[in-house]
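SEQUENCE WITH STRUCTURE:
===
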Amino acid sequence: MLEKIKITINKNAYNILLKDCENFGFYKNETELNKNLFFNTIILNYYDHFSSNEKSFKESISKTLDGKLKGDKDETIDKLLEVIRKSEYYKDDKEKEIINLKPTKITEKTIINIENNLSIYASLASYYRNLFTSYSNLKQNYRELIIFKENYNLILESIKKDKQVNIVLTNDHIINNASVYKISHSREELYNYVLISTSNSTQTIRLAKIKYITLTNLKRDISSDTITLFEKQIKYGVEYPLLSANEEPVIVRLNDKGLKLYKKIYLYRPTPDKIEGNDYYFYCSHNQIVHYFKRFGSNAIIISPNDLYTKMKNYYFAASKKYLSFSKSEKNVDKN
């Protein structure tokens, strides 16, 4: 087994790595993150892409400087690259963190390959620092595709070959004979969602929640109605499944403060299809409406449909009762 590698990385990039480790479910147990497995997964799945970009970058610099250099050209290019990386990645971030990387069996061949092809002018630690920093600068949905590269490629293959799949989720639930329609990321570019159709239902699954996926010999079977439903879901918010392509529109009335909140709160914000004065008309998932507007309080009132109006009213009524029943004496006890 290869020896441990000590890598110094800026704190901002390190925090992104830790957050991804948590978001993508890399745990040793219920509470402890499996950071080493996560770091090794990045190396395994991102190495080819990162190395290809580095090669292209060096070739571009080489062409630009062709005929203008004296001495060792490769050494100059490597040193210039390091200056560029420090300018691009580190900026004013002077805080650093240490990654103690322990190679595993799954990355042993990749790490040996990295060592064998490493420039004589670069250190192994700096190579990994640049690889991890490059990863951290990608958008989150792209980072998720890297971490779950194998399952992502199998999903694309099932679509290309028009084959159904069997899926095992991280909670060990099994979905057999599923037809994948598309994989699409949220508008906020946070996560990727797999849209599947089975014989009796449609489902939306986060890519990170898929443990295993295998192709079958059965042809995909997705009805035209299901395609219409999925396309509408992608348009309005892929993370919010629709029960029907003809789900009843929602009318939300916003006051002046509500209008300001709507412009300010971007995350999971639904897109209106029509605006009449302060009334906003939405044709998206009802769950998306409730999830988004329940933060607005009295500044956004659901006018229609009636069942959604009642649901939101009961939500605030229950919260109000809870606050009213929470007496001043109880608050003082909690403080103590």
About this structure: The longest strand covers residues 174-185. The first helix runs from residue 11 to 23. The two ends are 54 Å apart (CA to CA). The mean pLDDT is 88.
